[in-house]
């Protein structure tokens, strides 16, 4: 199967996947307890007022009809408006996306070179002191929940030593203007992915260095550096690509905890706020967005993996 | 000596929080008197928390839920995933396999914390809910590994021989296939348990599925954050215990794996945990079960 064929088929499956997730999320959020109309009517609700809000929000229509409207809107890229603030959901997405994107991009920019370098260095001197140190530290670091690590770092560097600001309060969405704010979140975000990816690169590199084609390249008299960089490395990196995709996906949607600790107004914060306020259209819109990024990221990862290491089976 | 050192670090890191979590609640005699919020010292070894309770007492009380929920969730996930995965692997019909495995891909298609937040708001709050949700989030990964391992075992000549002998489905499946995959599953247990621990702690930190004034290490970290400048120990003590527990458990399981798979010089290689990866066929687009489930966070 050619690459184009493969990508096209994956794309179709991905569209289907997004649709299924969208339906599931719509039904799940409709099952949320509490009624947005009651919540909006205030502390001393007047039944007539609740009725009126319901009508305006079309909450009185049957589920199937609202679902159909919502799905139709999805195809027009219209995600509806927030129940609470009447702002379009797309505006929520746009607001939250900027900080999340800044964090994700910076994390990836540091993560990929560093993890690959660590993995390669550990693999080349397999069993050496550096390899053992990297392995042990990564086993240890990998398990720590982000919030616990973040709070310890904040207590040490933010409160005791006062080197860095403890949270991003007061900075707003413009994180790049205040680089000091970004240091601690980046460290926390990097800790776990660096462990898993450098381990995978290390394992892939060891396997590649031990393979027939590398031995053949050596026999041909190619320099060690060339063998390692041009022949062994792509296969080693290919082994880590699915995990890298998973990390990217996580960075784009799931860093709720890190945003909560450092008070960064990204997509995770938007989601937690929307769930707390029963703002269904925003929750649904965010979930669809996360599903789309998941599918796209995995698609790109599979295509990149296919290019890096054509032997890898990516059929189906 | 070196061996002692290697086991020792993991042992101490796990032992201290474990001891506090298990024995702590017995050491507390009734609710202590409340004083002002965020007082340092003054008869309280670790000061007081956001509502004036003694932090040391809360530390003693707060480990049990985290640990228990994570353990129960892991056990529950295995109880469901093992029959599920084996059923998918041994079925003769492809559509049964697809029917069993495809819905699980749906759980994998969303970040786990997002799902957790959504599900927790729908279900009634409480520890049983958290157990169920964390088990559900761990289910797809375990089921895939079970299925992959069972597929490999099921294609062995021994199974063919048993079938030719006229042994029944039950005896082949439970008596042979299920027993043969125990080793693979045991190799994976550590990752699953730390994953559950991670999810439970993160969820409690976000206030998902627990009362806001619960005696729980993760909840303590969240609720005492406003006092970080005045009384850092109210936050640091539970946070450090969680860090120690996660690191220690992971180190111990890793050590156990390395020892069991022979005295080889590769402490990082995990032969058992990844052996299923290459044999897996026809389940989703992802190439094999991921060795490190970041979605259990990242």
Automatic annotation (TrEMBL), chain A:
Subcellular location: Cell membrane
SUPFAM superfamilies, per the entry: MetI-like (SSF161098)
Annotated InterPro entries: BPD_transp_1_N (IPR045621), MetI-like (IPR000515), MetI-like_sf (IPR035906)
ABC transmembrane type-1 domain sequence ranges: 97-301
Keyword hit for Nuclease: no
A Pfam family per the record: BPD_transp_1
Membrane-crossing residue ranges in chain numbering: 101-124, 136-158, 178-195, 250-276, 282-301
UniProt keyword Transport present: yes
Membrane topology: Multi-pass membrane protein
Keywords: Cell membrane, Membrane, Transmembrane, Transmembrane helix, Transport
UniProt similarity note: Belongs to the binding-protein-dependent transport system permease family.
Protein name as it appears in the record: Peptide/nickel transport system permease protein
Organism of origin: Streptoalloteichus tenebrarius (strain ATCC 17920 / DSM 40477 / JCM 4838 / CBS 697.72 / NBRC 16177 / NCIMB 11028 / NRRL B-12390 / A12253. 1 / ISP 5477)
TrEMBL record, chain B:
Coiled coil: none
InterPro entries: BP-dependent_transpt_permease (IPR050366), MetI-like (IPR000515), MetI-like_sf (IPR035906)
Family statement: Belongs to the binding-protein-dependent transport system permease family.
The protein's name in its UniProt record: Peptide/nickel transport system permease protein
Membrane association type: Multi-pass membrane protein
Subcellular location: Cell membrane
Predominant cellular place of this UniProt entry's protein: membrane
Ranges of Low complexity composition bias in the record: 260-279
Region (Disordered): 260-298
Entry superkingdom: Bacteria
CDD domains: TM_PBP2
TM ranges: 7-28, 66-91, 103-123, 129-146, 189-210, 230-253
Segments forming domain ABC transmembrane type-1: 63-253
Keywords: Cell membrane, Membrane, Transmembrane, Transmembrane helix, Transport
């Amino acid at each position: 199967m050619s690459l184009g064929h493969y990508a096209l088929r994956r794309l179709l499956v991905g569209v289907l996947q997004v649709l299924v997730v969208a339906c599931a999320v719509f039904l799940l959020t409709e099952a949320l307890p509490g009624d947005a109309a009651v919540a909006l009517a205030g502390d001393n609700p007047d039944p007539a007022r609740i009725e009126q809000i319901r009508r305006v929000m079309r909450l009185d229509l049957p589920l199937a009809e609202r679902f159909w409207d919502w799905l139709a809107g999805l195809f027009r890229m219209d995600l509806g408006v927030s129940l609470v603030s009447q702002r379009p959901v797309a505006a929520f997405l746009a607001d939250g996306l900027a900080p999340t994107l800044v964090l994700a991009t910076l994390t990836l920019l540091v993560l990929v070179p560093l993890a690959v370098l660590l993995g390669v260095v550990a693999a080349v001197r397999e069993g050496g002191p550096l390899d053992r140190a990297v392995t042990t530290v990564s086993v240890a670091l990998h398990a720590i929940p982000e919030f616990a690590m973040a709070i310890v770092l904040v207590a040490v560097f933010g409160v005791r030593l006062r080197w860095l600001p403890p949270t991003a309060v007061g900075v707003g969405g413009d994180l790049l203007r205040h680089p000091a704010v970004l240091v601690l979140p980046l460290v926390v975000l990097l800790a776990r992915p660096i462990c898993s990816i450098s381990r995978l690169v290390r394992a892939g590199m060891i396997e590649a260095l031990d393979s027939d084609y590398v031995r053949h390249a050596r026999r041909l008299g190619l320099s060690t550096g060339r063998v390692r960089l041009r022949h062994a490395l792509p296969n080693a990196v290919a082994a880590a690509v699915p995990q890298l995709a998973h990390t990217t996906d996580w960075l784009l949607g799931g860093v709720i905890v890190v945003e909560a600790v450092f008070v960064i107004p990204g997509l995770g914060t938007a989601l937690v706020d929307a769930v707390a306020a029963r703002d269904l259209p925003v929750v649904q819109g965010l979930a669809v967005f996360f599903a789309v990024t998941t599918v796209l990221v995995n698609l790109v990862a599979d295509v990149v993996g296919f290019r890096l290491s054509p032997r890898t089976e990516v059929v189906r | 000596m070196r061996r002692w050192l290697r086991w020792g670090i993991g042992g101490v890191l796990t032992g201290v929080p474990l001891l506090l979590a298990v024995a702590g609640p017995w050491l507390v005699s009734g609710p202590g008197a409340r004083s002002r919020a965020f007082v340092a010292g003054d008869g309280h070894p670790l000061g007081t928390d956001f509502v004036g309770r003694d932090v040391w007492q809360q530390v003693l009380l707060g480990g049990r839920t985290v640990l228990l929920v994570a353990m129960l969730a892991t056990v529950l996930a295995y109880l469901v995933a093992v029959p599920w995965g084996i059923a998918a692997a041994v079925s003769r019909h492809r559509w049964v396999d697809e029917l069993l495995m495809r819905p699980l891909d749906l759980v994998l298609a969303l970040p786990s914390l997002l799902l957790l937040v959504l599900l927790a708001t729908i279900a009634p709050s409480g520890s049983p809910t958290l157990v169920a949700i964390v088990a559900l989030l761990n289910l797809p990964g375990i089921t895939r590994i079970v299925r992959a391992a069972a597929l490999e075992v099921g294609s062995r000549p021994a199974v063919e021989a048993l079938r030719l002998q006229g042994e029944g489905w039950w005896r082949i499946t439970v008596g042979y296939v299920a027993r043969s995959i125990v080793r693979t599953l045991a190799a994976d247990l550590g990752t699953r348990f730390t994953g559950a621990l991670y999810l439970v702690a993160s969820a409690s930190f976000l206030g998902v599925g627990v009362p806001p004034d619960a005696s729980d290490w993760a909840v303590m970290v969240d609720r005492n954050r406003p006092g970080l400048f005045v009384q850092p120990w109210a936050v640091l003590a539970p946070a450090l215990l969680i860090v120690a527990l996660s690191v220690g458990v992971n180190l111990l399981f890793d050590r156990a794996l390395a020892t069991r798979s022979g005295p080889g010089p590769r402490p990082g290689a995990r032969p058992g945990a990844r052996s299923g990866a290459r044999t897996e066929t026809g389940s989703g687009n992802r190439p094999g079960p991921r060795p490190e489930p970041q979605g259990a966070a990242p």
